[in-house]
Amino acid sequence: MNGLSISELCGLFCCPPCPSRIAAKLAFLPPEPTYSLLPDLESTSPVTSNLGASGLRSRLAGGAGGAAGVAGVAGGGVAGVAGVAGVAGVAGGGGFGDRSGEGRWKLHLSERAEFQYSQRELDGTEVFLTHSSRGNRVGCMYIRCAPSARYTVLFSHGNAVDLGQMSSFYIGLGTRINCNIFSYDYSGYGVSTGKPSEKNLYADIDAAWHALRSRYGISPENIILYGQSIGTVPTVDLASRYECAAVVLHSPLTSGMRVAFPDTKKTYCFDAFPNIEKVSKISSPVLIIHGTEDEVIDFSHGLALFERCPKAVEPLWVEGAGHNDIELYSQYLERLRRFISQEVAAQ
């Protein structure tokens, strides 16, 4: 199950490891980076060198960090994207955590990013690095999809993708729901340094939240937290601690143990990703989206979170949808638009 041997499964109960070990086994599968950061030669701020993803990790964190293991919570990819590589303009220095003095950066997308838009859309994309409280550099991306938009979506993406692969989806999503999109890569993903872990997930989204607020001056009442698959873990954690405009949980999980062992009814002290214990603390409106035929995170997880969440609005159960294709159903955008333009805006 999910790449774990019988002895490892037994060991979870006989000699339970720390949550980070469970998380690494069940959740993290960083892809080969599909983008790199290049110095903006038109900037007056100094940049030390040309660094790709591996170079950034080596120079900034003393080595690359990828997590071994299998993708038990592997979803969150974007379907149907095709196109060409490109380079985007980059935001300047300053803001929370931007203490490096390394100047401005440009985004270079490899062909594996499968970017489907033109240079014009890339020109509306900014990338920069910030610091997490655990000492990792966190790659961030801000896309001005709708310059006059009231809301900015802080998007925590799914597993096995990075910002390069998600960039086309972000542009399309933001344009269609009339929101700007801010996203980041988890430690060990893309150009972010360190290794993927549960604790790093929480530190990464904290760094992204503070960077979005201080760098762009966006207040909490104008931020919508959006988590997809494994991205619901940092999203729920942050939303349980900070009030925001709204929360979207897309194909969420209740906890790591409940994914690995569907009959689990109790949250053990060594369980990873305990969304089920945190979702009741969210004070913002919550929209839960789940496919009824999800083959990675069973539909029952979405139902359980909906029942536990006091601020949940009418959910979207997509009949026949799996883990990675909900975006292809028309009701997905329809429900998001209605949630943002009516239910959130009416607060």
Automatic annotation (TrEMBL):
It catalyses: S-hexadecanoyl-L-cysteinyl-[protein] + H2O = L-cysteinyl-[protein] + hexadecanoate + H(+). Residues 149-255 form the Serine aminopeptidase S33 domain. The keyword Electron transport does not apply. Pfam families: Hydrolase_4 (PF12146). It is a lipid-anchor. Its EC number is 3.1.2.22. GO terms for cellular component: dendritic spine; endosome membrane; postsynaptic density membrane. Keywords: Cell membrane, Cell projection, Hydrolase, Lipoprotein, Membrane, Palmitate, Postsynaptic cell membrane, Synapse. It is found in: Cell projection, Dendritic spine; Endosome membrane; Postsynaptic density membrane. SUPFAM superfamilies: alpha/beta-Hydrolases. One of its GO terms (biological process) is regulation of postsynapse organization. InterPro entries: AB_hydrolase_fold (IPR029058), Hydrolase_4 (IPR022742). Belongs to the AB hydrolase superfamily. ABHD17 family. This is palmitoyl-protein hydrolase. It comes from Cyprinus carpio. The lineage of its organism: Eukaryota, Metazoa, Chordata, Craniata, Vertebrata.
